[in-house]
């Protein structure tokens, strides 16, 4: 979206909605962006690659900030909603919504990088795992296919999973994602998909994730 210099922007901090620590934010032309990643001055190529991935491939509103000693990537947020807006959804419902977004993100990465055939095999594998573990409402591969194409924002149509289901799901999704994509680097762009959630709901899920057994997997 934007490639900016330090003099173009204002950087400040706000209280993190879920943690007792400040959160850096960047202001540009009335818009607010949160810090996503920092790169050394020697990592210009990596910084630009991440920025292009988020903007061109994933349609995110992002800033690439160029400074003499570093590069940083920032993603747009709605500041007025930070940490306060959960849309009235249940905690379990928010976790399921985030999980389906991660599923769709991993599936799209496999399809983009490995092709439709590998994506279809991944779909089959995840369906088999969820059926074996008797996940509610997952009785066939068609049920998983429906999850891959549905709008996760339509929370009324999400499966009625509980927190224990979400934990197992994220463990199995990580295992399959790593198997298909060759390493665990897929987790960052997958988590970036959660920017589509309302800020309060995303913060709730990320805080829970960081305190859960999956914190070492999804980071």
TrEMBL record:
InterPro entries: DUF7469 (IPR055892), Npun_F0813-like (IPR054638). This is Uncharacterized protein.
């Amino acid at each position: 979206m934007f490639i900016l210099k330090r003099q173009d922007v204002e950087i400040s901090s706000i209280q993190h909605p879920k943690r007792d620590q400040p959160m850096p934010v960047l202001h540009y032309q009335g818009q607010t962006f949160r810090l996503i990643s920092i790169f050394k001055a020697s990592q210009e190529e990596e910084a630009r690659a991440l920025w292009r991935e988020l903007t061109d491939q994933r349609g995110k509103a992002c800033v690439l900030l160029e400074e003499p000693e570093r590069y940083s990537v920032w993603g747009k947020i709605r500041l007025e909603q930070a940490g306060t807006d959960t849309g009235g959804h249940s905690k379990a419902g928010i976790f399921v919504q985030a999980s389906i977004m991660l599923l769709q993100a991993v599936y799209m990465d496999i399809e983009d990088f490995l092709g439709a055939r590998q994506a279809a095999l991944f779909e089959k594998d995840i369906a088999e795992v969820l059926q074996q573990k008797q996940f509610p409402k997952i009785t066939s591969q068609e049920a998983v296919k429906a999850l891959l194409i549905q709008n996760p924002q339509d929370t009324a149509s999400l499966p009625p999973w509980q927190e224990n289901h979400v934990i197992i799901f994220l463990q199995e999704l990580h295992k399959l994602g790593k198997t298909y994509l060759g390493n665990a680097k897929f987790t960052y762009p997958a988590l970036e998909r959660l920017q589509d959630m309302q800020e309060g709901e995303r913060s709730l899920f990320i805080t829970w994730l960081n305190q859960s057994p999956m914190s070492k997997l999804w980071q």
